[in-house]
Each structure stands twice: as structure tokens, then as C-alpha cells.
Amino acid sequence: MASHDQRVGYGLPTLLALLLHLGVLVVSVISLPASAPEPTSSSIVQATLVSTETTTDRAQRTEETRARAEARQAEEDSQAEEATRQAEEQAAAEAEQQRQQEAERQALEEARLAAEAEAERRAQEAEQQASLREQQEAERRRQEQEAEQQRQAEEARRQQETEAQQRREEEARRQQETEAQQRREEEARRQQETEAQQRREEEARRQAEEAARLAAEEAEQARQRAIQEEAAAAEARQGQEAANAFINLVKRAVEQAWVIPPNVSQGASAQIIVRLGPSGELFSAEISQSSGDSAFDRSAIQAVEAAAPFAELRQLPASVQRDYRQFNLLFRPGEVR
């Protein structure tokens, strides 16, 4: 691109210089007239201009004009030659530059071709090496496979020998165990017969002892039952006596606390259900059967509440206390039952 710009820059000045040179040559060749033709006068009197310029002066002037023209021509020729020389130098420089560029291009092309050839050669070498490595790897795998097959065959042979030896040993062991089992079974059979005889004898002895023991236990149990029944009867009597005493005590306490309202009919009666705590404290007193007279019913409940608590409950036997933590009281005019 730089070389093309240079050619465009110097071509136009060179052309202009050549045209200028040709113009100078044309001007120098064409001679100017020495004097202008005198116009024809129509007048009667004609005047003639007598020039004071001598022939020598005209010759000198002509020589000077020619010298100036030659000087201009020489200068123009020098300029044209200089332009031509510069154009030739420029063309030579451009040609040299083009030659160098062509040489560089050829060198680059040769280098590219050489690099491509070298790359192709290296690729071929790499491909050959890769192929060689693949062949070597395939050979190595083949050898490893053969070695593995041989190892597996040897291992299988040893395994078969080991299994055969184990089967022989297992057969001998089973034979020994069978014989030992037969001996044990025979010994066990004799032992079982002996033990069966011993068990029969022991069972007969045990049955005799058991019959004697059962007879003795039955006699002892009969005696203990008699004692327990007697004790239970005594405890029941004591408990009943204590319970009766507790109920009588509750009745007396309630009767003392009961304030019978006036105008109560003699046939009125109310039943109260009383619930006590473990220490005889009153949990509740509720009407279970009303007398039909609310004042009478309320006085019965108030009597129970006023007489509570009934701490004597704790003096009852433990087996009886729970039975008497809930009981009924029947209120009639003049008595509590």
C-alpha cells in the first residue's frame, strides 16, 4: 500500500515536468517577427519612422535574447533532466522496493512452505510414533492378557487341586463324624435307657414322696385354714363391732348436731349419702332420697356437715376403713338410722 501511494505522488510532477520541457522547446523553435508590418497609409503624406537602433544594437539585442532563451532552455533542460532523474530514481527505488517486497514475499512463502513441510513431517513422525506406541501398547496388552490367562489357568488348576483335597478331607471328616455320631447315638441310646430306668425309679420315689408331702400339706393347710377361718371370724367380729361402734358414733354425733325444723310431719324421712376421706373428713353429703320437704332435707345435710369430721374412721381395721368411707343415713323425726 505504501509503494502504491509513492507511485501516485511522483507520477504527476514528472508528467508536468516533461510537458514544461516540451513547451520550452516549442517556444525556442518558433521565431518572433523582427518588427511589425507597417500599416498602409491612405494619406498623401507618408511619414517614415527612422529607427535610431543600429544593426549592431539589433544584433546585440538578438544575441542577448538568444542567450536568455538558451539560458532558460538550459535551465529548463536541467530542471527536466532533474525531474527525469528524480523520476528514474523514484522508479528505481520503487522497483527496488517491489523487488525487496517480492523477495520478502517469496522468502515468507518459502518459509511458510518449509514450515508446512516441517509440520507435515513432524505430524507424520508423530503419527508414526503414535502408531508405534499403539502397536507397543497392543503388544503389551496382549502379553498382559496372555500372562493373566496363564495366571488364571494356574490359579484354576491350584483351585481345583485345593478343592479336590478339601473334598477328600471333607469326606474323611464326614466319615469320622458319621462313625463318631453312630458311637454317640449308641452311647446316647444306652444312656437314655439308663436314664429312663433311673427316671422311672426316681418317679416312683418322687410320687411316693409327693403323696406323703401332699398328705402332710393338706393336713397343714386344713389346720391353717381352720386357724385362718377362726382368725378371720374373730377379725370380722372385731371389724363389725368396730364398724357398728363407728356408725353408732356417727349417728349420735349427727343426732346431736341435727336441728329439726318445726312443723315437720311424723312420717317424713330423708336419706343422705355420706362420703368421707381417708382421715374421716367429709367429702360430700347429698340427698339420695328426698323427704319432699326442702327444709327437712337441708337440716339433715347441715347436721352431717356440723358433725364432721369423723376421725374415728382411722381407728377401724384397714380392711374395713374403705368399706365405711361411704354409707347412708336415714333421717326421721326423732332418730337417725
How would you portray this structure in words?
- By secondary structure, this protein is of the alpha+beta class.
- Helix content is 74%, strand content 7%.
- The protein contains four helices and four strands, in the order ααββααββ.
- α1 (2-29) runs antiparallel to α2.
- The longest helix has 203 residues, at 55-257.
- The protein is elongated, with a radius of gyration of 81 Å.
- Mean pLDDT is 81; it is low at 2-8 and 31-51.
The proportion of strand residues reads 5-15%
Number of helices: 4
Average pLDDT taken over every residue: 81
- The succession of helices and strands, N to C, reads HHEEHHEE
Briefly characterize the structure.
It is built from four helices and four strands, in the order H-H-E-E-H-H-E-E. By secondary structure, the chain is an alpha+beta fold.
